[in-house]
Amino acid sequence: MAVSPLAGQLASGQFAAAPIIAAAAPQGRSAAPAPESHAVAAMSWTELRAAVQDCALCGLCRGRTKTVFGSGAQDSPWMIVGEAPGAEEDARGEPFVGQAGRLLESMLGSLGLSRERDVFIANVLKCRPPGNRNPEPDEMRQCEPYLHRQIALLQPRGILVMGRFAAQTLLRTDATIASLRGRVHAYRVNGGELPMVVTYHPAYLLRNLPDKAKAWADLCLARERFGAGAPRPD
Ligand code: URA
After folding, report:
1. What is the pLDDT of residue 232?
2. pLDDT tens readout for residues 44-78
3. How many Å apart are CA 163 and CA 165, to the nearest integer?
4. Which atom of ligand 1 is nearest to 88's Cα?
5. For residue 217, what are the CA distances in angstroms to 116, 124, 194, 222?
6. Ligand 1 neighbourhood includes 100 CB (under 6 angstroms)
7. How many CB atoms lie within 10 A of CB 103?
8. What pLDDT, on a 0 to 100 scale, did the predictor assign at position 5?
9. Which neighbouring-strand residues pair with 195?
10. CB 206 within 8 A of CB 213
11. Which among 60, 65, 175 is positioned nearest to 125, based on CA atoms?
């Protein structure tokens, strides 16, 4: 594999893999499911895609050009979860096609992964927040059943979680990225557990270049736990 520019920035301390820890219990955030979550939890992939396309559960539907369901092969070994579509994603209906997406692709390329073949990419929010503002709690609450159903149907080998909003949604915690990254979490689904690694959002990395080394360490941890050579979770 070619030596990546990210690899060249790898922090000097060797990154130690930690054991899987149990998914955090809800802390300081409502754990109540959104009203439609039971119906969503029974949907097929086709039904889910159609439900997202027609969704009007929050006000973001009024400003969107396209919903952004996600992209990649359904049998991808990895799932990547980001925050919400930006302007380019809203226009094209695809996740991570802007500048942050180019960095993400370069990071994946450094691991020998292709976004079409090896990862399915989705966001917590399927519609663009106006002006690229942060997602609001109610928007995440309404949208999160779609993401949980995507994970349950895709059953990836593991999940790479990018950024605070995705991490806080999937782990049901208010903890910071700095405190969540660097270890493997567990996402409970279909009666089992999937390994989940939290890292910085590529948009954050574009503004904070020194943290790329930590992100690279997180990607290496993900590769170690759910990369090609790692055992498939139950
Ligand atoms: N940032 C995200 O979190 N998701 C996208 O799809 C694009 C930018």
Report:
1. 59
2. 999 999 999 999 999 999 999 999 999 999 999 99
3. 6
4. 7
5. 23, 23, 19, 9
6. yes
7. 19
8. 40
9. 186
10. no
11. 60
Tell me how far apart the alpha carbons of residues 158 and 223 are, in angstroms, rounded to a whole number.
9
Q: Read off φ and ψ for residue 181, nearest 5 degrees.
A: -80, 165
Residue 27: is its pLDDT beyond 60? no
Average pLDDT taken over every residue of the chain: 87
Confidence of residue 34 (pLDDT cuts 50, 70, 90): low
Q: Which two tokens stand for residue 96?
A: 């991570």
pTM of the entire predicted model: 0.86
pLDDT the model gives residue 28: 39
Mutation test of ligand 1: which of 81, 94, 96 has the most ligand atoms closer than 8 Å to its C-beta?
Answer: 96
Compute the half-sphere exposure of residue 67: CA atoms within 13 Å on the CB side of its CA. Answer: 20
Q: Is 96 in the pocket of ligand 1 (CB under 6 A)?
A: yes
